[in-house]
Amino acid sequence: MEERGDAVPTGAAAPPRNRGERPLTLKSPKLMEARRAAGILRSALRGHTGDLTLADASAKSGLPLRDAESGLHLLVSEHRGHLKATSEGELLFRFPYGFTKPWETRTRLTRALQAVLRVAAGVARFVVRAWIAIVLIAYVVIFVGILIAQLFARSSSDSRNHDGVPGSFAGYFLFRLVLDAIFWTFHPFSPFVWTSEPAWSSSHGHRGALGRRRDETPFYEKVNRFFFGPTPEPRDPLEAEKLILAEIRAQRGRIGLADVMRVTGLSRDEADPRMARLMLDYDGTVDVSEEGGIVYRFEAIRRTAAEAPARAPAPVWAKREELPPLTGNGPGMNALIVALNGFNLLMSLYALGAHLTLDNLGLLAQGVPMAELPATGTAVALGVVPLVFSLALFALPLGRALLRPLKQRRLARRNGRRAVLRAILSRVGARQGREPITEAVLQRAWQEAAGEPPRSEEITREVVALGGDVDLEAGEGIRYRFPDLETEAKALEAEREAASEEEARAGKVIFSSDA
C-alpha cells in the first residue's frame, strides 16, 4: 500500500478527510498532574499482578502515554515498585506489594482520628440520603401520637381505674409502644428491617425454604427509589478512551473511524476529532492509501508484557439499552410508601381544618378535649408543611411516569441507530455474496432493535451522517454505498496484514531492580 502522508507531528494539522474540508488544527497537549495521574492508575490497576508496560498501563487507565508515564514513576517511588529494562528499550513496571504500604506503621492516635472521620463522613452521607424517609416517618409518628392523644383526651374523665393508673400514663405508654415499633421496623440499621421483597434468592449461596435471598436494601434507599427512581450506575469518564485503546491493541495498532464507531457508538462527526486528539496522546500517525482510505496507526500502544493476545471489545450494539424500572421496588413496598405518604396528606388536611397549631397541640397534650380547643391560627408545622411535602412527593413519581414514554422513544431511537450502524458496518467491504445495503435492510434492522418502524427521514439522516450515497446503478429499490468506509476497510486490511508482531513485544529483560 502506498502512502500519501506519514506521521502527523505534534501541533500540525490532520489531513482533511475530503477535498474542500477545512483542516483540523491540533492544540498542544496538556500535561496532567503526576499525582492525579497516579490516582487514576492506582484505581485502574488495582488487582493487577505481574509486569506491565507503559502501553499496558495507558490502555487500562485510558490515560495518554505521557501522563501514564509520570503517574507510573510516582507510583514506583511511593509503593516501592520495581523496574525492568528490555533489549528493545522498553520499561516494565512491577508492584510486588500492590498499592499498599505494609512497611508503614500507624499510631493509635492516627487510627482513632481516621475512625472518627470515617464515622462522621458516614453520618453525613446517611443524613443526605435518608432525610426524606426520616421526615416521612417522623410525620407518621407525630400524627399517630396526635390521634392517640385525642383518644385519651376524650375519655380522660373516665380513664382512671381502681388501681389509680391515670389515662394519660396509659396513653403515653401506648404512644411509646407505637413509636418504638415504627423505629425498629424502619430505621436503616435495625436488624428487623421490614421488607415486602422476597427474603431469599437463588442468586446467593444461602437459601431458605423458599430459595429466596434476604433483601438487604435499607428502607430509606427504597423510599428514595420510589420518588426519584433507581440510582444509575456511575459512568467512567474515560470509558470511550479505554474501548478505543482496547480496539487499537486488538486490531494490530491500526484502526479507522468505523472501528471507533463500532465500539463506542459515536457518530462520525464525533469520532473524527477524537481520533485527532488520540494521535497526540498516544503517539499516533496517519496513513492515507492511494484510494484515499485513512488509517490511524498506533505502534507504541501495542507494547505489552502479556502473553495472551489482546481481546477486542464487544460492539456497542451487543447490549440493548433498556429503560430502568420506575421505582425498582416490589409492589408491596410501593404500596407501603404510598400508604404512609397518603396518611400524612390526609392528616395534614385534618390538622388545617382542626387548627392544630403548636399552642393547641400543647393544650391537647395537657388533656384538653379536641372540641374545646380554640379554632384560631393556621397549622403551619402540622398542616402546611406536611401537605406541601406529601403533594410534592406524590408529584415526583407521577411526573417520572408521565415522562417514561418520551424516554422510551429516545432509547428506541438510540437502539435503532445502533442497529443501522451494525447493518452498514457488517456489509461495508464485505466479500461478494453478502446482502447489499438497501433501504429495506436498514428499515428492518431499525424495527427489530427499536420495536417500531422508523420514519423515512431517520434512515436518510443516519445514511448521510455515515457518508452514504444512493447507488444510482442499482436495480429496483434504493441501495446505498459508503465510499469512504469502503476505501477505509480496504486500507485497514492491507495495513493489518503488513503489521509486524514485533511491535507488540516488550523485548528480553536485560536489567531488573529486584535482581
From TrEMBL:
Signal peptide region: none
Composition bias type Basic and acidic residues, residue spans: 492-506
The UniProt record lists the keyword Membrane: yes
Stretches for region Disordered: 1-24, 492-515
This protein's UniProt keywords: Membrane, Transmembrane, Transmembrane helix
Membrane spanning stretches: 126-149, 169-186, 335-358, 378-403
Protein name per UniProt: Uncharacterized protein
